[in-house]
């Protein structure tokens, strides 16, 4: 199996509005999703996540750029790999007047999956008892579960979830999160797009952040957090004014935060204590402040004017 | 492709609108047979007696006045300006016959082609409507996007949907037309005249029925394409209604010579193996008078067949091209 599940180079898509105005949805996106594990695909609303996913799935035509899935160029060779891809794009869309079971039966028959598989995936997604109810009578959480059941009909290696927790209650969100985590741990590749960072941070091994249809940062969660902001330490010291003067003179950035000072730019926290002690100011408390994905995301996207 | 077509057929037959449409077709078929039964009923004894009395009165009147009226007519004819109508056409006073009074018996061979043609209209309309909904609903619900994540080869998907719509209606149309054909035969056999139903008549009726089945299948496929292009059933029906009113109604009335290029006449010409239509032809007479006449013309079966074939191919290709290129959201 290829080490890279998804790769895009210079991907571009422009839409024309009803009034004829051109809107660039994706502009030169270079994306790489490693095979295995959960990959968070982050960006504010309108940043081009869904359009990128639609292009990967052959639903939308790219204006320029190349895409591969498991090393196969798509959309040209999408039929060769589509059996390995399960996808839910935005809200789950099935035939509303058919039962959940009927919807799955039609999909299973279309891909040549045995009918028994329908019952299995309904059980797997806890929909066994509601399988014979019409799709339109399902709650949003049940619709999401049915969509997941549909993706599992293929026993895919790559699962693409686009904003999977939109509109779900906390229990539903947790359920989806656990499902994604479980699939990732089974060695499957899960690409989850979201603008809710806390949701992704809890399950993702790697992330890509996009804004205005361009890649802003990519890597493991630790790499992205570490690379996005300068190291920050929280310092408790008696004389804030004197300490700030000393540290600013040393080229560091200092902000007051209640009874603490937040010091950015110190490559080693020991530098802070050393400089202050040298001026006979003694630190009573010092702790590194760990950046989270949200702060990195906001910093990156604010920098893009998003 | 075969597997996809089977799946689409299952979906078509599982749809509620298809079930409602089939129930509607069943109801119309029953109503048609009931109407035929009422039409074919012979007159009651009282009605027959009245008809006999009317005949006798008319015959008596003819015997007393026919010669006198003919003489008067010939005199009038002589005063007519040129061009004169033919004398033998203008002054006809035929002897009344008993069969001219009362109700003539219903003849199976005479009424059946009309009945089959009428049936082909409602079958085509139902097929178009259900075909349009078959694809229109898939687009309006967004289910097509999900479907394409399972089978991304769009032309296969498109072909399977059209094929399912068309083939799904072949047995439906065949059964409806067979019920109308044999049901009418049984009714007329009991109440009217089936003696003239020769082998050739059965052959002609079967051919009309076969072509009506084909037009039903084409209508289902075309409805599917229109549903796909407009992405909504109501929009597809609106387009058909607008066409019928504007093109077949208003346009055809104002530009009679364009009739051979409209769908309905070609549809009739194909189903009935030729169709009559009339145009107004006007000329100035030798005395300077301006005379307009309705002239009957015939549109050939071949014209109708080629027209429908080319029309279908163009619409299906257009739909395929649009579906192949269109972004699915």
TrEMBL record, chain A:
Q: Which UniProt keywords apply?
A: ATP-binding, Nucleotide-binding, Transport
Q: Name one GO molecular function term.
A: ATP binding
- Which residue intervals define the domain ABC transporter in the entry? 6-237
The answer to whether keyword Transferase applies is: no
Q: Give the family, as the similarity comment puts it.
A: Belongs to the ABC transporter superfamily.
Cite the PANTHER family for this sequence. Answer: ABC TRANSPORTER, ATP-BINDING PROTEIN
What name goes with this protein? ABC-2 type transport system ATP-binding protein
- The organism encoding this protein is Kribbella pratensis
Automatic annotation (TrEMBL), chain B:
Keyword Transferase applies: no
TM helices/strands, residue ranges: 20-38, 121-150, 162-188, 208-230, 237-255, 304-323
Keywords associated with the record: Membrane, Transmembrane, Transmembrane helix
Q: What is this protein called?
A: ABC-2 type transport system permease protein
């Amino acid at each position: 199996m290829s080490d890279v599940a998804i790769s895009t180079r210079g991907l571009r898509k422009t839409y024309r509005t009803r009034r004829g105005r051109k809107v660039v949805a994706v502009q030169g996106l270079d994306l790489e999703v490693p095979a295995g594990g959960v990959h968070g695909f982050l960006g504010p609303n309108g940043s081009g996540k869904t359009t990128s996913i639609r292009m990967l799935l052959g639903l939308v035509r790219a204006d320029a750029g190349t895409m591969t899935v498991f090393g196969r160029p798509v959309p040209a060779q999408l039929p060769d790999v589509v059996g390995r891809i399960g996808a839910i794009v935005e809200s789950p869309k099935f035939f509303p007047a058919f039962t959940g079971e009927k919807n799955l039966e039609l999909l299973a028959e279309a891909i040549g999956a045995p009918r028994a598989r329908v019952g299995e995936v309904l059980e797997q997604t806890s929909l066994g008892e509601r399988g014979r109810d019409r799709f339109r009578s399902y709650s949003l959480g049940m619709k999401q579960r049915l969509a997941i059941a549909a993706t599992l009909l293929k026993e895919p290696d790559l699962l693409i979830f686009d904003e999977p927790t939109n509109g779900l209650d906390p229990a539903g969100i947790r359920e989806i999160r656990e499902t994604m985590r479980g699939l990732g741990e089974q060695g499957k590749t899960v690409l989850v797009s979201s603008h809710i960072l806390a949701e992704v941070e809890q399950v993702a091994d790697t992330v890509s952040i996009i804004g205005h249809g361009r890649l802003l940062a990519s890597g493991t969660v630790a790499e992205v957090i570490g690379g996005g902001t300068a190291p920050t330490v929280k310092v408790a010291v008696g004389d804030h004014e004197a300490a700030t003067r000393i540290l600013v003179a040393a080229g560091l950035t200092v902000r007051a935060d209640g009874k603490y000072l937040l010091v950015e730019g110190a490559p080693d926290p020991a530098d802070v204590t050393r400089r202050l002690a040298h001026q006979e100011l003694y630190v009573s408390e010092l702790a590194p402040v760990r950046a989270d994905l949200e702060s990195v995301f906001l910093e990156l996207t604010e920098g893009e004017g998003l | 492709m075969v597997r996809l077509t089977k799946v689409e057929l299952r979906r078509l037959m599982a749809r509620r609108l298809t079930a409602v449409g089939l129930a509607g077709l069943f109801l119309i078929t029953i109503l048609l047979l009931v109407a035929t039964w009422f039409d074919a009923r012979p007159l009651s004894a009282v009605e027959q007696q009245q008809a006999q009395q009317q005949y006798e009165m008319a015959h008596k009147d003819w015997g007393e006045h026919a010669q006198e009226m003919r003489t008067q007519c010939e005199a009038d004819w002589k005063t007519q300006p040129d061009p004169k109508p033919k004398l033998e056409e203008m002054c006809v006073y035929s002897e009344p016959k008993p069969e001219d009074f009362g109700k003539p018996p219903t003849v199976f061979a005479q009424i059946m082609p009309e009945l089959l043609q009428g049936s082909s209209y409602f079958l085509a309309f139902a097929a178009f409507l259900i075909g349009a909904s078959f694809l229109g609903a898939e687009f309006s619900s967004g289910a097509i996007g999900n479907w394409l994540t399972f089978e991304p080869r769009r032309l296969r998907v498109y072909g399977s949907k059209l094929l399912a719509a068309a083939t799904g209606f072949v047995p439906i149309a065949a059964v409806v037309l067979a019920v109308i054909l044999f049901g009418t035969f049984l009714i007329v056999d009991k109440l009217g005249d089936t003696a003239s139903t020769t082998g050739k008549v059965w052959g002609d009726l079967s051919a009309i029925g076969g072509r009506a089945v084909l037009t039903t299948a084409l209508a289902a496929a075309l409805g599917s394409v229109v549903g796909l292009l407009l992405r909504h059933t109501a929009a597809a029906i609106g387009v058909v209604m607008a066409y019928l009113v504007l093109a077949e109604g208003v346009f055809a009335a104002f530009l009679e010579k364009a009739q051979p290029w409209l769908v309905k006449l070609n549809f009739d010409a194909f189903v009935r193996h030729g169709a009559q239509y009339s145009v107004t032809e006007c000329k100035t007479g030798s005395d300077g008078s301006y005379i307009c006449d309705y002239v009957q013309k015939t549109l050939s079966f071949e014209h109708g067949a080629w027209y429908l074939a080319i029309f279908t191919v163009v619409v299906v290709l257009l739909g395929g091209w649009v579906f192949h290129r269109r972004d699915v959201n």
